[in-house]
Amino acid sequence: MLEFKNVSKIYNGNKKAVDHVNFNVDEGELVVLLGPSGCGKTTLLRMVNQLESITEGDIHLNNKSVKESNKIEMRRKIGYVIQSNGLFPNMTIEKNVMIVPDLLGWDRKKQLDRFNYLMELIGLHPDEYRKRYPHELSGGQQQRVGVARALAADPPVMLMDEPFGALDPIIRTKIQDEFLQIQKEIKKTILFVSHDIDEAVKMGDKIALFRDGQLQQYNHPFEILHRPANEFVSEFVGQDRVLKSTSLYSVKDLVDSVSLTGYQKAGSVQTVQEDTSLRIVISKLLNQEAEQLAVEDTKGKIKGILTLDLVEKFLYKQIKETPKRTG
Ligand SMILES: Nc1ncnc2c1ncn2[C@@H]1O[C@H](COP(=O)(O)OP(=O)(O)O)[C@@H](O)[C@H]1O
Ligand SMILES: [Mg+2]
């Protein structure tokens, strides 16, 4: 779907901002471009929609070089979301969201339906926000509208440059969760820039980790966490990488892999749902909120008891059993 072929970028004949980068992105995948500030993430992203030229190498979108595509047409087919949402302050929310469909000459009815659909998708009531201006929305709401605008003409590809980076941590977590839900429905091919390993692990089907313009490792989050390709990756990922990997699993994954301790009805035990993230379970167990937790299935039936020992057993199994994947 998207192929980076030996891509380099040199600004003004100076040092390489992007240095011989090779990787492919499959259709419907969300790939996080990760790395410290200045490692070339934004540059790489902007070469895809040709906001930056490619110095050397090429990028293919659906087997066609982006250099040979008509820039204006291509940008309409690629959704672009940036950190400072980029909404036009003097245009209503509806006008902002419908910029590209308007340019494409969609009729009024089609635009209205699309606007209503997108606003519902991002969790804002269409009629309540239609005539408002960006400054009349909170930062989180503006960022959601930025996402809706990028999705407006249903582009197959989305480029998102630290889209939630300016939001405070609680709002950011909420928007990340919402966006993952949306992605389940829309299944876009997405390049998502981040400098935050936690965000990358949470959002990415795969992570491409960069240093000084060079790709260090490209693989599933689990692989990056557990099999760092070199010392830089290992350091970037940090000490608590096993703990980080727990956000990749739910209680259900654990139940499917190791057997729970039997449940005796003596005393009261806190319950957790099967769809709870293992990371949340661990923080409950580690914070002494509970020594054990009763696992409840969707019908409210208790399946057994979960303890820290079992979590440990499960993680150990994952690390040992996950076959080495190359990507
Ligand atoms: N327009 C530009 N002109 C010259 N150098 C640039 C320009 N944009 C970015 N750079 C340089 O290219 C490198 C990569 O920048 P960037 O892609 O913005 O990194 P990131 O998004 O990972 O923070 C940095 O050294 C930056 O200073
Ligand atoms: Mg950047």
TrEMBL record:
Q: Which UniProt keywords apply?
A: ATP-binding, CBS domain, Nucleotide-binding, Transport
Q: Where is the ABC transporter domain?
A: 2-237
SUPFAM superfamilies reported in the protein's UniProt record: CBS-domain pair, P-loop containing nucleoside triphosphate hydrolases
Source organism's superkingdom?
Answer: Bacteria
Report the InterPro entries cross-referenced here: AAA+_ATPase, ABC_transporter-like_ATP-bd, ABC_transporter-like_CS, CBS_dom, CBS_dom_sf, P-loop_NTPase
UniProt EC number: 7.6.2.9
One annotated GO molecular function: ATP binding
- Summarize subunit and interaction data from the UniProt record for this chain: The complex is composed of two ATP-binding proteins (OpuCA), two transmembrane proteins (OpuCB and OpuCD) and a solute-binding protein (OpuCC).
Family per record: Belongs to the ABC transporter superfamily.
* Cited Pfam families: ABC_tran
Q: SMART domains of this UniProt entry? A: AAA, CBS
What catalytic activity does the UniProt entry give for this protein?
A: a quaternary ammonium(out) + ATP + H2O = a quaternary ammonium(in) + ADP + phosphate + H(+)
Task: Give the protein name, as stated in the record.
Answer: Carnitine transport ATP-binding protein OpuCA
Residues of the CBS domain = 263-321
